[in-house]
Design a protein that fits this description.
alpha+beta; 3 domains; 15 strands; nine-stranded mixed β-sheet; four-stranded antiparallel β-sheet; Alpha-Beta Plaits
Length: 233
């Protein structure tokens, strides 16, 4: 088994984050600093920062309705509140899958299952994520067409998106936006590129998984059916 998969399945973090731990020299196999892509056996002793890690046989899966004002990270070096502060104290070692920025609300998955986390976040899987977006004022058909067909972010064109207007007044417009990528602050930057200002952003779906009545800040376990659905998205 590759070392990053071993670490992810042990509940250390996502595969991508585990690759960073390995690159930083914080992971050892049988006392020697591990290398990216290294294979390990169950008999090997694997440590992270000196602590032994082992495969978990039972994974945990949770869903949160993240409120504004929390960063999506395990620890924050600026001392801000993190999504981990909202988890019940009796939950084991789990971590957030992907990110929602400080001012974004909505659906956030937590798990100790590194394989699932990797599946949901890897760009090649194109997992659809749907957001409720509220912008100031109205939006033109030309701008909608650009958002749907892809805009240029960091010199690269975004993939096609589904963009639907669900409510419009003189002061604001509400839209549902579905994307299959996960670029940093992507939805906000997409609207900035067509000169539209977002004043409210909430992720409401991952695939067909919804918040199902969770109030802001609330957390619940995913059902077996929901876990199976995510594993097969």
């Amino acid at each position: 088994m590759r070392i990053n998969k071993f670490l992810a399945d042990s509940g250390v973090d996502s595969r991508r984050a585990c690759d960073k731990l390995i690159s930083d020299g914080r992971v050892k196999v049988n006392g020697k600093i591990a290398s990216l892509g290294e294979e390990v056996d169950l008999d090997d002793v694997v440590t992270v920062d000196g602590s032994v890690v082992s495969l978990k046989k039972k994974f945990e899966y949770y869903i949160m309705n993240k409120p504004k004002g929390y960063v999506t990270t395990v620890k924050d070096d600026k001392g801000r509140k993190t999504v981990m502060d909202l988890l019940p104290s009796n939950i084991g070692r789990i971590y957030p899958v992907g990110r929602l920025d400080y001012d974004t609300e909505g659906l956030l998955i937590f798990t100790s299952d590194g394989e699932l986390a990797n599946r949901l976040t890897h760009p090649r899987n194109e997992i659809p994520k749907t957001y409720l977006v509220r912008i100031v004022g109205k939006i033109s058909e030309n701008a909608l067409a650009k958002l749907r067909n892809g805009v240029i972010l960091d010199g690269v064109k975004t993939k096609k998106a589904t963009v639907k207007v669900v409510n419009e007044t003189q002061n604001f417009t509400k839209l549902h936006v579905t994307i299959t990528e996960g670029k940093n602050r992507q939805v906000r930057r997409m609207f900035e590129s067509v000169n539209s200002e977002i004043d409210f952003l909430k992720r409401i779906k991952v695939g067909d998984l919804t918040l199902r009545g969770l109030d802001r800040g609330e957390v619940r376990k995913l059902t077996k059916e929901e876990v199976y659905y995510l594993q097969n998205l």
